[in-house]
Specification:
133 residues, alpha+beta, Alpha-D-Glucose-1,6-Bisphosphate, Chain A, domain 4, 7 strands, 44% strand, Polyketide cyclase
């Protein structure tokens, strides 16, 4: 894979329940509503271990394989546009994202856009929050 190794970890605080955050991250229908490049091609009702899907960011495809999908965590193995992984952890009022991989894309920018979009989605449903590094 061409590119350079990058890593980023961000945390947002939101006034949202862990259940609402879980729904936003693990339900593909809900995920499509806030994912900035929401061309998520999955017909599953919920993300689960072994599920594979692809998102499209312009002309770049990013293949995802769900490694872990739990009550408060999600780990995605990435290939094609990013070779690496994306981990999500959450609880009452917070979401944390950790992304590491080799890519030509600026992964911290994509990660920031994803978290801001998630925060906006949660805010539009009656909650608010802030981003911290």
């Amino acid at each position: 894979m061409l590119g350079k190794f990058q890593k980023s970890q961000l945390r947002i605080e939101v006034e949202a329940s862990a259940d609402k955050i879980r729904e936003s991250l693990l339900n593909p229908v809900t995920l499509k509503k806030w994912l900035p490049w929401g061309n998520l091609n999955s017909s599953a009702n919920q993300l689960h271990s072994g599920l594979e899907f692809t998102t499209q960011m312009g002309i770049i495809s990013i293949h995802h394989r769900v490694d872990v999908a739990g009550d408060n965590c999600l780990r995605l193995l990435l290939s094609q546009g990013i070779d690496g992984f994306h981990e999500w952890y959450w609880g009452e009022g917070w979401v944390q994202s950790r992304l590491e991989g080799v890519s030509m894309l600026p992964i911290s920018l994509g990660q920031s856009l994803s978290l801001l979009s998630l925060r906006q989605f949660l805010t539009s449903n009656g909650v608010s929050g802030s981003v911290t590094r």
